[in-house]
Automatic annotation (TrEMBL):
Residues 23-88 form the RNA polymerase sigma-70 region domain. The keyword Protein biosynthesis does not apply. Gene3D superfamilies: 1.10.1740.10, Winged helix-like DNA-binding domain superfamily/Winged helix DNA-binding domain (1.10.10.10). Residues 122-173 form the RNA polymerase sigma factor 70 region 4 type domain. Coiled coil: none annotated. It comes from Oceanirhabdus seepicola. PANTHER family: RNA POLYMERASE ECF-TYPE SIGMA FACTO, RNA POLYMERASE SIGMA FACTOR HI_1459-RELATED. Belongs to the sigma-70 factor family. ECF subfamily. This is RNA polymerase sigma factor. It comes from the Bacteria. Keywords: DNA-binding, Sigma factor, Transcription, Transcription regulation.
Length: 191
């Protein structure tokens, strides 16, 4: 039976480097896909994912499972690393590109299905990118990473009502941008 995240954290603190490798492998794709969606650039997402894991390992002793799941803790670090990037001079000087096609999708749809959805994904990606930062963050965490409102609230330090409001406003803005109505849009966003 695989070790839990908490067990791996305890082993890392004890000096077990192989436990660190297991923990990184377990969460790398999740962190990378979040950052890729958040910043919208493949190469930057790779760098920021590495930065996130460096911060995780430097601060692993500060993790306390009583304050939430490891998954939420590591995503909080990824959110903060991404926000730091947007504040950096490197971001301000850099030309943003639309290299999103290199981002990995969460689902494992077959190739033909993915090709059929390519245009739809581009439209959704562009619409999500155009959302205000706080709405985009809430939408990505809720619908792309299946986090609960309370988990997002803990990660961001905002009240649950604030997160719900951001998600509601984000969905409303996405409907306007995508020209859709009702639950169909919510389902499109969640893919």
């Amino acid at each position: 039976m695989p070790q839990s995240d908490n067990q791996l954290v305890e082993e890392i603190i004890s000096g077990n480097e192989s436990a660190m490798e297991v923990l990184v492998k377990r969460h790398y794709d999740m962190v990378y896909s979040f950052i890729c969606r958040y910043v919208g650039e493949y190469n930057i997402a790779c760098d920021l994912t590495q930065d996130t894991f460096i911060k995780v390992m430097k601060n692993i002793g500060k993790y306390n499972h009583k304050h939430g799941e490891f998954r939420s803790w590591i995503l909080k670090i990824a959110v903060n690393t991404s926000k730091d990037y947007f504040k950096s001079s490197a971001y301000k000087q850099r030309n943003q590109s639309d290299d999103v096609d290199n981002c990995h999708l969460k689902s494992s749809d077959d190739v033909i299905h993915l090709l059929d959805k390519k245009q739809e994904r581009k439209e959704i990606k562009q619409a999500v990118d155009e959302l205000p930062t706080l709405q985009r963050e809430a939408i990505i965490l809720k619908y792309f990473h299946d986090l609960k409102i309370r988990e997002i609230s803990k990660m961001t330090g905002e009240k649950e009502a604030t997160i719900k409001s951001r998600i509601f406003s984000g969905i409303k803005n996405l409907k306007k941008r995508l020209g859709g109505e009702g639950e169909d849009e919510k389902r499109r966003i969640a893919r």
